[in-house]
Q: What sequence folds into this?
C-alpha cells in the first residue's frame, strides 16, 4: 500500500532548487528517474514497494519534473554532485542510491565521486561505457535535439512533464541538452572497478544493452570470476540480475524488479571479499 503521507521540498544545491519527495520511513534510499522522466515514473510499482520499509527520497533531476533548469549543461557527473548535495542537505550520513537509465548513470557518478555517502548502489539499465549500448540505440541518441520536441510532445511522457514543469515552454531546450549529453563519450571502466560498496546491476534480457555487457560490468565488480562455492567464498559483494521478458522501456514496471532490489537491500552488509 502506498504511504499517503508524502513530504516534499526543494534543496538548494549547486545553484539548483532540487525537488524531492520523501515517502515512508526507515533506512534512507535515494531514487533517481530516467531521461525525460520524473519521480512519478516509479509510482506504480517500485516506489510503493520500497516505501513499505524505507525512507524513499525520490528526486527530480536538473531540468526534469519540478526542478527548474539552470544555465549549466546536463552532465551525469554534475547531477551526481547534486544528489550528494541533497543527501548532505537532508543531514544523512549515508543512503542507498538507486537509478534507472540516466538516473542510473547519475547514481553511478554519485557513488564514484562521493563513495563515503553511498551504502549500497543499484544501477538499472545503464552501461558503464557509452559503446555498451547497441549501435541502434546510439544512432537514436544522435538524433535527439530541439527538433525532437514536436514528436515527443505527442507522448504521455511529455504530458506528465508539462503538468508539473516550472516552464514547460523550455522543453525544446531540455531536448537539446539531453541530446548533447547523450552524444558525449564516456568510459568509467577503471572507476567502476575501484568501487567498494555492494552494487546490484539490473538489465532486461531485451534491454538497450546486450547481456554480454552486463556480464562484463559484473566482472569489473569482482563478480563471475569463479565458482561461488558452498560457503559463498567465491562470491563478490555485488550482484547481477537479468530480468526475463524485459526491455529498457518497461523494466521499471516489471514485477520482478522490486523483489530483486529489496532482496539486495535487505541483505546484511558483507565483509569485503571483492576479487
A:
Amino acid at each position: 500500500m502506498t504511504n499517503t503521507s508524502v513530504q516534499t521540498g526543494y534543496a538548494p544545491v549547486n545553484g539548483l532548487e532540487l525537488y524531492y519527495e520523501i515517502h515512508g520511513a526507515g533506512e534512507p534510499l535515494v531514487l533517481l528517474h530516467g531521461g525525460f522522466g520524473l519521480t512519478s515514473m516509479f509510482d506504480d510499482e517500485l516506489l510503493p514497494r520500497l516505501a513499505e520499509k524505507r525512507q524513499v527520497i525520490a528526486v527530480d533531476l536538473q531540468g526534469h519534473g519540478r526542478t527548474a533548469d539552470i544555465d549549466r549543461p546536463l552532465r551525469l557527473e554534475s547531477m551526481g554532485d547534486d544528489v550528494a548535495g541533497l543527501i548532505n542537505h537532508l543531514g544523512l550520513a549515508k543512503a542507498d542510491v538507486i537509478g534507472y537509465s540516466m538516473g542510473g548513470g547519475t547514481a553511478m557518478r554519485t557513488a564514484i565521486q562521493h563513495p563515503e555517502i553511498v551504502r549500497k548502489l543499484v544501477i538499472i539499465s545503464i552501461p558503464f561505457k557509452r559503446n555498451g549500448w547497441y549501435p541502434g540505440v546510439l544512432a537514436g541518441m544522435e538524433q535527439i535535439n530541439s527538433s525532437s520536441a514536436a514528436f515527443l510532445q505527442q507522448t504521455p511522457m511529455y504530458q506528465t512533464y508539462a503538468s508539473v514543469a516550472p516552464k514547460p515552454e523550455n522543453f525544446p531546450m531540455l531536448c537539446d541538452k539531453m541530446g548533447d549529453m547523450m552524444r558525449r563519450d564516456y568510459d568509467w571502466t577503471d572507476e567502476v572497478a575501484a568501487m567498494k560498496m555492494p552494487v546490484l546491476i539490473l538489465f532486461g534480457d531485451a534491454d538497450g544493452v546486450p547481456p554480454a555487457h552486463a556480464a562484463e560490468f559484473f566482472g569489473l565488480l569482482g563478480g563471475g570470476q569463479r565458482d561461488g562455492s558452498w560457503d559463498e567464498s567465491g562470491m563478490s559483494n555485488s550482484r547481477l540480475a537479468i530480468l526475463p521478458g524485459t526491455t529498457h522501456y518497461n523494466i521499471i514496471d516489471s514485477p520482478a524488479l522490486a523483489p530483486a532490489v529489496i532482496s539486495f537491500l535487505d541483505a546484511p552488509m558483507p565483509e569485503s571479499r571483492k576479487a
